[in-house]
Amino acid sequence: MKAAVLEAVKRLSVKDVPTPKAAGSMALVRVKACGICMTDYKAFSGDRTNVSFPTICGHEFAGVIEQVGEGVRFFSPGDEVICAPVANCGVCAECRNGFAQYCKNGAVIGGDGMQNVLDGAFAEYTLVPEVALFRKPKKVSFEAAALTEPLAGSYKGLIEYSQLKITEDLVIIGAGSMGLLAAMIAQRAGANTVILVDVSDWRLEFSKKCGATHTVNSTKVNAKKAVYGIVPNGPDLVFEAAGALPAAQLMFELCRRGTRVNEFGVTTEGSIQVSPATIHWLETRMDASFSVYPRVMQQSIRLQEKGFVDAGKIITHRFPLDRIDDGMAMMQQEERVKVVVTP
Hints:
The chain folds into two domains: 2-149 and 292-342, Quinone Oxidoreductase, Chain A, domain 1 (Alpha-Beta Complex), CATH 3.90.180.10; 163-288, 3-Layer(aba) Sandwich (Rossmann fold), CATH 3.40.50. Helix content is 27%, strand content 26%. It has helices at residues 38-45, 93-96, 142-145, 148-161, 177-189, 201-207, 223-230, 245-253, 276-282, 294-305, 324-330, and strands at 2-8, 11-16, 26-36, 60-68, 80-83, 86-87, 107-109, 117-118, 125-129, 133-135, 169-173, 193-198, 214-217, 237-240, 260-263, 285-288, 315-320, 338-342. Helix 6 (201-207) links the parallel strand 12 (193-198) and strand 13.
């Protein structure tokens, strides 16, 4: 099969590699679509240093089962499936306590977050543990289905953790993939105001197609004054989805008494200035959300199946596998949101 093998920093080679064979509880999935996540790009660019070369990245994917191992019980060849990037054991303390994304015995497919890393989906085929397989609804395209995991992550952070409520005023910092998916969810969840803050006019304009009621370019105006000009009483919830330290700083600066915050996007090492006294007197409610677990994957599928969210709306660029270098180059461009590879 053909696979995009990351052999070193900025050295991505599309080459023939042995097609894996399904055995045990593993299924061989023929990949139909795979999104490029910033985690993948950071492995390529060298910004992520916990990568063991060579490796095959790609963890946002959907496809068709080609072959199943003898231990696979609930799926068969020909089934159209959505694949979670996290495979958990279901038995360790983390799994039993509802934190399957921290499973001690688990594995991550083509991504980050666990010691055991399986080859990912920047390939024609990839092996997937049965526990990570979900049935794809017929009405959901493979490209949209590939974005089930990022949609699930936004749902988990915004609804399950930060408990966004109907009529609330929300600020989302970062109009990238995750911020836009969160905006779509917020719109359907009944948020009164959805303010997108970003540094790109192009992305802010794009966000209006995804549920944003207002936009703020923080490089052109004072973001706090702009936000309070829209919601004079201040936001109920600030959702940081940019993954940059200045965005995390702004998140706290936007708080009024009782504002909830979710540190959802920061993957950048470093620190910001926050006053514990201010947090105390404002009764700031703090949260964070990392990765996904089975329940939110299933809910993300339902959101798409029932027509509540069209995750495919954020796809701006598509590349075949043999042009994955162009896809990685596109990740550096301002005028793009989600880039999808179609093996």
